[in-house]
Design brief:
By secondary structure, the chain is of the alpha+beta class. 38% of the residues lie in helices and 10% in strands. The strands form four sheets. It has a four-stranded mixed β-sheet. A four-stranded mixed β-sheet has the order 4-7-3-8. Strands 5-6 form a two-stranded antiparallel ribbon.
């Protein structure tokens, strides 16, 4: 998976390290996540596909279970993957497909802060400067945006990109609304599916609470709180907007602020932003999705039938399934320069003896030193939270990212996770090829229509009251009920 801040995977220092370590010459074609599905499908259809796919998400039900272009790994894992068997074999049952076979190996990334991934980042420095309090309700959020724009007519109250994460964040003041999608394991969320307290699969996007949420978000849009380019903006575009002179963006959503503000080069600005707890809606709803399955990202390493030596491929990837690889792939391979392993006397984020100290901080500057967040991860919770974090370590220090995100999440997100008897997100589901075929087209069409319609409702191109019934009816005609029936059947099974 390519990222704009990695210069060239084929000449990268970490790539060279792995080639020297294993004696394998790696030929890497890096593609962006946004383009990956189209490129994978074209490659598979044309027969010109690679030996392996790594950190991407090929359709294992179609290309593995159904067509056999991805090979089953069951008989090869134990013989060739001692690290995986020692550290990750507990995932084996979870990654089996509907035919009982394993076609892909997972990334394990139990990032506590990602399990509460729907975050809104707030420029608290700007709020303090204007004498405004941190908003805790939808009305207070509206009032803060209004006051900010009155004092900063050229400012941006809410910056976002075309995944509409800000809409999802705000909607959680009305009904649980997961991101779309959150990871490889929950592509099913593209129809805004959730599980009701009585175990029934429904779509949040057809509920009366969703309708009321749209009305509220439209009031923000009408007031000018949404940057006009939000609905078509890219990740790079949002980053450029946030980093304009004068820090024009008051609120922006997404996992972590360091993805958009360089914690090293722009540390003063980085310090101005903190996470905002979910706001409470008019009916008392104040919730954030808890992605309890988020630690397991399925099928991040698959082997195709083009590979002449699948055993060698598995031995190569087995290196990644150990704690030290999590650090070395992301930050560099040289101990004492990039990291310190088992630092004496240091305490981790989790309060236990530290597993490692990072010397090379996270950055979005273009570099060719490491793979950063694009490698296959072995990051269970004890590794993620094993990073040294002295009690007096400044959480805005570039090397303290894990501590910063842990503390922001623990204090501001976890208290608002769904409780027993609330709506909840879908569990991991493995569909049969027939079930996947049944929902494949409806999922795309329903997802696109929901996304297009919510923007149309918010911008006034559709009338929320007059057009609501026809919107719901159109979703049914596109196959929403068919999706819900299949998901119910999988969960019941």
């Amino acid at each position: 998976m390519s990222k704009p801040y990695i210069e060239d995977y084929n000449t990268n220092d970490f790539t060279k390290y792995m080639e020297d370590l294993t004696g394998i010459n790696l030929e890497i074609e890096a593609v962006s996540y946004e383009d990956s599905q189209e490129k994978i499908n074209l490659a598979m259809a044309g027969g010109d596909y690679p030996d392996v796919f790594m950190t991407l998400e090929p359709d294992v039900v179609k290309y593995g279970v159904k067509e056999g272009m991805l090979i089953p790994l069951d008989d090869l894992i134990e013989k060739n993957m001692p690290n995986f068997m020692a550290n990750a074999s507990y995932t084996l049952d979870s990654i089996r497909q509907s035919d009982g076979k394993i076609y892909g190996l997972p990334s394990i990334n139990e990032a506590y802060h990602v399990m509460y991934g729907n975050k809104m980042w707030m420029n608290s420095y700007k709020l303090n400067e204007m004498g405004l309090s941190v908003p805790t309700t939808t009305q207070e959020f509206y009032d803060v945006c209004k006051a900010y724009l009155e004092k900063n007519p050229n400012g941006v109250a809410i910056g976002d990109m075309n995944d509409n994460a800000a809409i999802n964040w705000l909607m959680n003041a009305f009904i649980l609304t997961p991101d779309d999608p959150h990871g490889s394991h929950d592509k099913t969320n593209s129809a805004k599916c959730i599980v009701s307290p009585d175990g029934k699969v429904i779509s949040a996007a057809t509920q009366p609470q969703f309708k009321e949420g749209l009305k509220y978000i439209k009031s923000l849009y009408d007031m000018g709180a949404f940057y006009e380019g939000n609905f078509s903006n890219t990740e790079d575009g949002l980053r450029s907007l946030i980093n304009q002179d004068g820090e024009p963006v008051l609120f922006f959503p997404h996992l972590y602020s360091a993805k958009y503000i360089d914690s090293t080069a722009s540390n003063e600005m980085y310090r101005h932003y903190e996470a905002l707890s979910p706001v409470e809606g008019p009916e008392g709803v104040r919730v954030t999705p808890y992605y309890y399955n988020d630690g397991l990202y399925e099928n991040r390493f698959v082997i195709t039938d083009k590979c002449e030596n699948p055993e060698v491929a598995l031995r190569f990837i087995d290196w990644f399934y150990q704690p030290k690889s999590y650090v070395m792939a992301q930050y560099g391979t040289e101990e004492g320069v990039d990291y310190i392993w088992e630092p004496e006397g240091e305490v981790g984020v989790n309060g236990k003896p530290a597993m490692y100290t990072l010397l090379n901080g996270y950055t979005t500057d273009v570099q060719n030193h490491d793979w950063q967040v694009t490698s296959l991860f072995y990051g269970p919770s004890d590794v993620r939270l094993g990073e040294s974090a002295a009690a007096d370590l400044d959480k805005y220090d570039p090397t303290a990212l894990e501590k910063f995100l842990y503390e922001e999440t623990k204090e501001k997100m976890e208290p608002y996770a769904p409780k027993k008897g609330d709506y909840n997100i879908l569990p991991i589901m493995h569909l049969t090829p027939e079930e996947q075929d049944e929902v494949a087209v409806p999922l795309v069409e329903v997802s696109n229509y929901i996304k297009e319609s919510q923007v149309a409702f918010i911008t006034g191109k559709m009338d929320i009251d007059k057009d609501w019934d026809s919107y719901v009816s159109q979703l049914d005609s596109l196959g929403l009920q068919q999706i819900l029936d299949v998901y119910q059947q999988v969960i019941d099974r």
